[in-house]
């Protein structure tokens, strides 16, 4: 039997858009929990910390990088030649055999083409070709390729030019070093030659000077020999200057003895003036001849004298004769030489200095 009492409804929870629905007539407040927390924490409302600017900047930077890479890929693709894409041949039915299509294209293809103004496609439907715009494929790509070729050629030319310049600099440096070494070698050789020539010239000059000096000395001695003469001839040297002995009052011999026979001529050794002529004690008869420079020549033990005081005589002129007067043991000529200051010297050395050999 039917009852008019309605059946009890099964309890269930209703759900809203963001969770269980509230009771009928109650509006759901999503901030209710946060407001309760605020009331429990003292009335302060804490705001959730937002993300830093660095995160947002990183996101923007990543998007920019991706965009740049995509733009670079597009630019690179435009520079590439067209790529042909081929599809496999499909066995398609004729369009006129399709239901409901044949009536629409019942006319000839020529009339439909002329009426619609659509030209036939020379390419079959089975071939699909990807092409770039005419201006990009025919103008931009060759221009970019040409620019790349020109840049590469310019770089290659620059590298070759730098290599040539470096090689030229190295060659110039090597040439300069070789020239410098050659110049230094030539300078050293020239200096050595100059030094050798200077040394040879100095030696030649020294030798020439020595020869000239020897020649001058020989000429001088020749002139002296011509202007000086030995005091006698045919003689024998019996006593020399400085010889010691008790027979001489001074203890030594003060002159040079020329032993010769009595009467042997005695000559003037050089031109001069007779200072004195006469007896002189142990010297016997003596003649003192004064030369132009003041030197005195003493002729002693003469047997006779042919000149007097104040008389001028010449070289080689006879002024007396050998004798044995005074303190003697035999006939001889005792010859003494005194300087202008009065000192006695060795007669043999003095005669040799005048170019006369004794």
Q: Identify the CATH class of the domain at 236-353.
A: Mainly Beta
CA radius of gyration: 76 Å
What does the oligomeric state look like here?
single chain
Q: What shape does the CA trace take?
A: rod-shaped
Instruction: Please name the CATH architecture of the domain at 236-353.
Output: Distorted Sandwich
Unreliable runs, pLDDT <50, ≥5 residues? Answer: 108-119, 122-139
Q: Biggest sheet: strands, sense, closure? A: 10 strands, antiparallel
What is the third-level CATH name, the topology of the domain at 236-353? Glucose Permease (Domain IIA)
The chain-level mean pLDDT equals 75
The CA-CA distance between the termini, in Å, is 205 Å
Organism: Streptomyces showdoensis
Pfam families: Peptidase_M23 (PF01551)
InterPro entries: Cell_wall_metabolism_enzyme (IPR050570), Dup_hybrid_motif (IPR011055), M23ase_b-sheet_dom (IPR016047), PcsB-like (IPR009148)
Biased composition (Polar residues): 118-129
